[in-house]
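Fold sample X.
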Amino acid sequence: MDKSEPSSKSQNQDENLLEILVSDGLISAAQAELVKQDSQNTGMSLDEILIARGWVKEKALEQYNRSQTKVKTTVPATELGYEDHLKKYRFILADILGESSE
């Protein structure tokens, strides 16, 4: 595999992360597009760009990345059920309050 091309699994995870962040209102769709363009132009990860731009805190991204392993992300964020959204919001609230969500 060419190292300059991200793996499709990595791309899917990135797309899922951006979809979740947009659906949860942390970033806008326009910001998500800009993050993708920045990533392609600079080779930086989406996480690095989101943090560098100050749009999402590092700790919040860690929670989202961890939640992606617990919530099936093959389903678009708009089709996630109540329980899945509740899990995500608990992660966000724990981050805001500085508590462990585990």
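Fold sample Y, listed below.
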Amino acid sequence: MDLFDKIANKVSPLGQFAADAHHYYTFPKLEGELAPRMIFRGKEVLNWSLNNYLGLGNHPDVRKADAEAASQYGCAYPMGARMMSGNTDYHEELEKQLAEFEQKEDAILLNFGYQGILSAIDALVDRRDVIVYDAESHACIIDGVRLHQGKRFVYAHNDIENLEKQLERATKMANEQGGAILVITEGVFGMSGNQGKLKEVVALKSKFEFRLMVDDAHGFGTLGPNGEGAGVEQGIQADIDVYFSTFAKSMASIGAFIAGDNVIINYLRYSMRSQIFAKSLPMTFVKGAIKRLEMLRTQPEHKANLWKIVNALQGGLKAEGFNIGSTTSCVTPVILKGNVAEATHLTHDLRENYNIFCSIVVYPVVPKDVIMLRLIPTASHTLADVEETIKAFQDIKGKLLQGDYKAETLAAFN
């Protein structure tokens, strides 16, 4: 059989809608300045779909720092991988600042978040070790776990009793194989908005021997007194052994980092294949990240503005009877009942008639009868934006309940 013939006959859960959804429901193009209002298909929409939590993506000080770095260094410097020829004082300075901010001994700078945590998992465990991870972990964690050649156990989302059962199994297997245990969870789960039960997970260290890795992509910059993340927010940062976050959310940029004890970070520095065999993070992003981190640390008004919008949006939605799940973060899911076709008609109405753009999440990410509209508040939004959105959501919820979006096929957008 020819490989391409085989692929041509494959239909993925999301790819089956490609012909009807491309450039509208999937791969949409938002144009213009990064802001709450952007251009979608030629008209302005109120946008709740950018992970630009602190509004730094288009901040003039950030734009200035990025431009100056690009002017001075271009996009190529430094050339080569960090280990070979791509290291600079600025890379090391950023690592030092990130470690101090996260109350850890050391940090390693990563090119990208997805490949970074995947590669870190691969480096930390061998075939004798056992991984135990939360069922709702991000795809980067799942793919890292898939690389693992040893045993892994999954526990029900945020279910500490189930985690304890899996740790009992893992402990037995690790002892038999002469291995160790790595538990992986998230500081904030990106779909539901739940914080990981880090305090309860850490408490199990008194009963079981394991190390804890936390992916805090959505907690970094948004939680904790100064944006240090979910570990500081929950008072257990010292018990997180491998702290990971990305620059793609609150820092509104490219790159990521891992913070932890000196011995572990130095081991990862010489063991992570995604860093050893990949080009160093360009100086434009490094110097830009230093500026963003400085603003995050010294300008608390960005986080304060963010939470003013979060509280208004989530409080307003709940007051109007919307189900926003059990979010304890900025991530704001609005959960409705309906099928995929209804979801597209609802979304089309929301975008075309109310000029509101937010992400639509359907099966297989959520159950078949669920429509999730996922809103990401930012410090750049206004209370007027919140009021406009809640009013529009009231209308579309009423239409959904009346059956106005009933259909067998996806809503056309051409």
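Sample Y note: The longest strand covers residues 181-186.
Also: The CA atoms of residues 141 and 361 lie 20 Å apart.
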